[in-house]
From TrEMBL:
SUPFAM superfamilies: Dimeric alpha+beta barrel. It holds the Pfam family Dabb. Residues 2-98 form the Stress-response A/B barrel domain. Coiled coil: none annotated. It comes from the Bacteria. This is Stress responsive protein. InterPro entries: Dabb, Dimeric_a/b-barrel.
Length: 101
């Protein structure tokens, strides 16, 4: 199994909208990809809780059967279609993939 974690910080303003608006849109777009390929076991998207000491605005946590499922997800047309918006609104992105025993 592979765990895929991505964390983003968004620009205060981008694509004609403020951070809060773009966070909601980014979350909705990511959630629309939750079942695009078989083999995705866990798919969670969350935004930082106001008032908490958070270092990132948005997180995606996935648990997948294997690296082939991750590759299929990353190359799926529905996922590829959200990348331009994400690139436009994201200030910083961090990602980690690792094997789960």
């Amino acid at each position: 199994m592979i765990r895929h974690i991505v964390m983003w910080n968004l620009h205060d303003q981008a694509e004609g909208a403020d951070k809060a608006t773009n966070l909601l849109k980014a979350k909705e777009l990511l959630l629309s990809c939750a079942q695009v390929v078989p083999g995705i076991r866990t798919f969670e998207v969350a935004t930082a809780t106001p008032g908490m000491d958070c270092t990132n605005d948005l997180v995606l946590h996935m648990l997948l059967d294997d690296a082939q499922v991750l590759a299929a997800y990353q190359n799926h047309p529905q996922h590829v279609a959200i990348k331009p918006f994400m690139k436009a609104v994201v200030q910083e992105r961090r990602c980690m993939d690792f094997n789960v025993d």
